[in-house]
User: Which sequence fits this backbone?
């Protein structure tokens, strides 16, 4: 069985900051959706930071042709997104973390909207990680550190606890994150982490400061073929 889906993150619809750097987040999102549709992809994982409350109705309406799942980011609030939430199993009253499974993979979705993975979520994650299947972990904030200023200032609190659990798993683990508005691919022992560029503005990999640019945006395609995982970035260049 082949499963292919799009991973998109950091759209930031309706927010003021993208406008200050001449980014039309809605136009970018429409272009991404058009490309996803053209490729015949019908499933989308949303990596968080969707946008302002008054943009949510338009955003979720645009997702009506697709099956979708979400891992919330620090710009998201479950209370504002809940009216649009599907009937998927959610653990926690105000913290949406959950898992789904394929024949060879277990997909775990964590909520890092409060910029921390609390004890209840971590305890649940420890239990969910006990599986013979390979794990796909979807979490807005990266778990493996990246040598950038962004990572120094905006990392997920308690991420070392998650990494400790992951290193005890005998299986391969694939982390899919956003948050840093850049592309990155790195591994540590059994853990491979893919950071996906934003649908909005990007941040350069600079160790000393946050440097914004608006000349590209994109998303990621993830494909599962039996027990193998393949992924590629789709990037759009903007001519300034």
Assistant:
């Amino acid at each position: 069985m082949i499963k292919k889906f799009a991973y998109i993150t950091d759209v930031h619809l309706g927010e003021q900051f993208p406008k200050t750097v001449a980014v039309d987040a809605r136009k970018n999102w429409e272009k991404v959706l058009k490309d996803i549709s053209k490729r015949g992809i019908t499933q989308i994982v949303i990596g968080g930071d969707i946008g302002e409350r008054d943009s949510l109705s338009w955003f979720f309406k645009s997702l009506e042709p697709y099956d979708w799942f979400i891992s919330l980011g620090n710009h998201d609030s479950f209370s504002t997104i809940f009216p649009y939430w599907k009937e998927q199993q959610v653990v926690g009253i105000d913290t949406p973390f959950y898992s789904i499974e394929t024949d060879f993979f277990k997909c775990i979705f964590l909520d890092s909207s409060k910029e921390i993975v609390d004890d209840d979520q971590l305890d649940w994650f420890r239990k969910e990680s006990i599986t013979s299947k390979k794990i796909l972990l979807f979490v807005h904030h990266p778990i493996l550190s990246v040598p950038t200023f962004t990572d120094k200032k905006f990392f997920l609190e308690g991420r070392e606890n998650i990494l400790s659990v992951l290193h005890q798993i005998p299986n391969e683990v694939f982390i899919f994150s956003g948050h840093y508005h850049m592309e990155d691919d790195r591994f540590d022992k059994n853990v491979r982490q893919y950071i996906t560029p934003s649908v909005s503005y990007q941040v350069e990999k600079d160790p000393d400061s946050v440097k914004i640019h608006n000349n590209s945006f994109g998303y990621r395609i993830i494909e599962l073929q039996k027990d193998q995982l393949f992924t590629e970035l789709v990037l759009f260049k903007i001519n300034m």
